[in-house]
């Protein structure tokens, strides 16, 4: 869609037929905004492998928006990964989000032949050459399992040097954390685009739990205002829309190469921000 910036939306594969039909309805609505691509997540340890595959192929083939599957190496053998890559390549998929991935609850230590996302990027390049545009994850506020920020920056640079084309960040609510991260990794030689991941605010309790678990900082002033609204969802959503819109304005004004919206399989929260920003269609 855009020559200078790219805009994309992320979905997760659903467990029920009704949920899947809703996902397709939302995807068709978002497709009307001509995003550069959709992405679809991959459950811990590959637990949604088949549902991710089916969702990706349907979004790409029927909704007609290029769709990038998430692919993780935790719990998968090279043979399993090779089969998935061949399936996606044969279906005409051209973009992959390559992740280390999360372990399912109770699995313990990492399994699989590839231990790190950088290993997975190298594997994809070795198997498929330049066929796929490879996205990797970035953590402006540090990966929750990293030993320290400096170590995390080096690991990110290693992923990019392994052959990634661009990166999508974990969501955040402080634009300065994004700009600081980009500045630091540029000094490590990373030149590829790093696109901010954007999480609309629609429910305070769920957002607070998820943010605490994944290491995304919810600023105190935002947290306190959301707490003050209690069960007033309308006020929570209106305030959240304002906060995230202002942050996106700052990101784009500061040179961010686009935005990647974590939709949670809903259209309206992301589109409210999109329309506030006056993004192209």
TrEMBL record:
InterPro entries (UniProt xref): FAD-linked_oxidoreductase-like (IPR029041), Mehydrof_redctse-like (IPR003171), MTHF_reductase_bac (IPR004620)
CDD domains, per the entry: MTHFR
Top-level EC class: oxidoreductase
GO CC list: cytosol
GO molecular function, one term: FAD binding
Pfam families: MTHFR
Domain of life: Bacteria
Metabolic or biological pathway: One-carbon metabolism; tetrahydrofolate interconversion; Amino-acid biosynthesis; L-methionine biosynthesis via de novo pathway
Reaction catalysed by this enzyme: (6S)-5-methyl-5,6,7,8-tetrahydrofolate + NAD(+) = (6R)-5,10-methylene-5,6,7,8-tetrahydrofolate + NADH + H(+)
One record GO biological process: methionine biosynthetic process
Keywords: Amino-acid biosynthesis, FAD, Flavoprotein, Methionine biosynthesis, NAD, Oxidoreductase
Enzyme Commission designation: 1.5.1.54
Cofactor: FAD
Similarity remark: Belongs to the methylenetetrahydrofolate reductase family.
Family annotation (NCBIfam families): fadh2
Protein name as annotated: Methylenetetrahydrofolate reductase
């Amino acid at each position: 869609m855009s020559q200078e910036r790219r805009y994309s939306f992320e979905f997760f594969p659903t467990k029920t037929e009704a949920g899947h039909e809703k996902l397709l309805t939302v995807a068709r609505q978002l497709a009307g905004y001509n995003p550069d691509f959709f992405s679809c997540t991959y459950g811990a340890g590959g637990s949604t492998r088949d549902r991710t595959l089916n969702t990706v192929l349907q979004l790409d083939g029927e909704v007609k928006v290029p769709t990038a599957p998430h692919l993780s190496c935790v719990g998968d053998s090279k043979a399993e990964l090779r089969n998935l890559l061949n399936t996606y390549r044969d279906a005409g998929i051209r973009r992959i989000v390559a992740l280390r991935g999360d372990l399912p609850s109770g699995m313990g230590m990492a399994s699989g032949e590839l231990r790190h996302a950088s290993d997975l990027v190298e594997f994809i390049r070795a198997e498929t050459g330049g066929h796929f545009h490879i996205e990797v994850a970035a953590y402006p506020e540090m990966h929750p399992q990293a030993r320290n920020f400096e170590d995390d920056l080096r690991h990110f640079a290693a992923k990019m040097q392994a052959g990634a084309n661009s990166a999508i960040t974990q969501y955040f609510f402080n634009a300065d954390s994004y700009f600081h991260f980009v500045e630091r990794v540029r000094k490590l030689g990373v030149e590829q685009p790093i696109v901010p991941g954007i999480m609309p605010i629609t429910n305070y309790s769920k957002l607070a739990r998820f943010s605490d678990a994944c290491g995304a900082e919810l600023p105190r002033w935002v947290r306190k205002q959301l707490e003050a609204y209690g069960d007033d969802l309308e006020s929570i959503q209106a305030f959240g829309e304002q906060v995230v819109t202002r942050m996106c304005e700052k990101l784009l004004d500061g040179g961010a190469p686009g935005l990647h919206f974590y939709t949670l399989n809903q259209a309206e929260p992301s589109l409210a921000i999109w329309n506030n920003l006056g993004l192209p269609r």
